[in-house]
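Hey, quick one: can you model this chain's 3D structure?
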Amino acid sequence: MYAHFLEKKLSDYGIYYGWVIALMTFLTTVFSSAVVSIPQVLIIPLTKTFGWNISDISSAIAVMLFILASMAPFGGALMLKLGIPKVVTISCIFSSIGLTTVIFVSEKWHLFFGIGLCLGIASGILGLGLAATVATRWFNSRRGLVVGILTSGFAAGQLTFVPLIAWLTSAFSWKIAVLPGLFGCILCSVLFIFLGKSWPKELGLPPYGDKQIFHPPEVTENPIVISFKNLFKALKHPAFWILAGTFFICGFTSTGLVSQHFIPFCFDNNIGIVLASSYLAIMGVFNFLGTMGSGWLSDRYDNFILLAIYYSFRGLSLLYLPYSNFDFYALSIWAIFFGLDFIATVPPTVRLTSKFFGIVSGPVIFGWIFAAHQYGAAFAAYSAGISRDLILSYNPIFITAGIACFLAMALIFYFKIYQNKLQNNFE
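Sure thing. Here's the predicted structure for all 427 residues.
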């Protein structure tokens, strides 16, 4: 009722309702980013409070990322079966339970339940799949730009909430720092319950840029069947393996390594939590700009070339950091270049996925590709913690990550050279 009323009012001013859905999705990604970022800010405070090792906490983070990866393939299928508003609400409920558990943590298993299980499920059923689904369903024209805008919400969340969480931790306590995430969960669920729609057809609208209303297929199968059926079809397509493999490296080098271990890495080099988070804020600013720019570029230029450039720059940035002086200028330069590249890989990857797998199956299959991303992130989060505890250094894992990026670049060039052979009929 509320959505229909708002759509009629906006149509009087020539505003397409899909932009409302996009705005709510953007806010959801902002708070989702905040929720996922909370654990890395809490690593040092929790080690000081309870005397736990960094590997103890990073193990819970690794579980979160592993479960996130395991749930990601079913997020798109759940949205296909239940609808976007219900899936967002379910995610917010799990996030609220997880964050509440973190506030009252006293034992290690609380971390694995709150951070590992609950936040893993919450983030997994949304993740990048929400942005991909909304952009694919609601926008035909400017789809790449919309993906860029929506995924930049993760950068905006990092930009605003990581410094806020760090400041609240230092000024008050790490328990207080969790509260903004809880507020975000409530806000996003309320917005989608009252204003959210799954398809433009529900409001009698075509996708943006189309003249005809798209009628989605009736879904009778359960989400697990839908997800695995599309996976088995995708496994026969070489494009899936290349996109999943490069996205595994993307997750390893970004979400798993930098997002979770940059602050402890800085702490090892005599930089406090609040100051380290300020560099993440700088990275967030340029991440925001880079992701939106990548979306704009992906609508106009060769997505293969864009991905190859992104991975090469990321590799150089990761190889540079361990050998920098960790002073203001070195870290600022690193934050700028890594920030521009942080999730710039998403828009071209989403566009290539929809190119090879279609409007209906594309978001579901992207869930599996995103799963590879998060498995890479989980592996990095765990191995980086182990590396730090055993070797007393993050340097080897950052160098390994840099080399992996150049492997991803090589795979993308292979993808481009042989793309005609990869374009078999998926649907």
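One thing worth noting: The two ends are 35 Å apart (CA to CA).
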